[in-house]
Amino acid sequence: MKVLITGGVRSGKSFHAESLLLAEPTVTYVAPGPPADPVSDPEWAARVARHQSRRPAYWTTVETSDLGAAVRSADGAVLIDCLGTWVTSIIDELDGWDAVLEDWEPVLFERLDDALAAIAEHEGTVVAVTNEVGMSVVPEHRSGRVFRDLLGTVNQRVAEECDDVMLVVAGRVLRL
């Protein structure tokens, strides 16, 4: 089973994703964003700590932006949380925020293709969490528009590979 869970910030999507995997005997939690730095960003670090405290102790956490490798090396179920932080991490790695999109976007999509192949090949359950960013105002800055557009494309591509797609709004789950 492959599942994509999308929703707004603090909508309950991560909690729901975690609840889908509680009965799994082996879970690899893939955190594809930059590690939380309690000194430079105490709020982000506190949020990460809250997420970690909800997870069972037997879950393995892997922090990497190489989603394909993380999924391929995982035994059992996989939880990717979240694709928005993955896109941010890849743009950071490629110095893409101020660069010409066409210069680095193909690399992002190559990495996405690799991740999608790994998800499709994985024999266990895969649950991916993402942000729904296309239902609001158009961002004022170029970086916000680039992120929104790329994440929208990533979300569509991942949804194509999934058996189920869910939207979480105010803690309520809607099957799409």
Radius of gyration: 16 Å
Order of strands in the sheet with most strands: 3-2-4-5-1-6-7
Proper CATH architecture = 3-Layer(aba) Sandwich
Stretches with pLDDT under 50, minimum 5 residues: none
Enter the CATH topology name.
Rossmann fold
Q: Give average pLDDT, whole number.
A: 92
Structural class: alpha/beta
What's the shape? globular
Main beta sheet: 7 strands, mixed
Helical content stands at 40-55%
* Number of helical elements: 6
What is the count of distinct domains? 1
Q: Report the sheet-strand fraction.
A: 15-25%
Distance between the termini: 15 Å
**Sequence of secondary-structure elements:** EHEHEHEHHEHEE
CATH level 4 superfamily: P-loop containing nucleotide triphosphate hydrolases
- What is the level 1 CATH name? Alpha Beta
The number of distinct β-strands equals 7
Pathway: Cofactor biosynthesis; adenosylcobalamin biosynthesis; adenosylcobalamin from cob(II)yrinate a,c-diamide: step 6/7; Cofactor biosynthesis; adenosylcobalamin biosynthesis; adenosylcobalamin from cob(II)yrinate a,c-diamide: step 5/7
Enzyme class: transferase
GO molecular function, one term: GTP binding
EC number: 2.7.1.156, 2.7.7.62
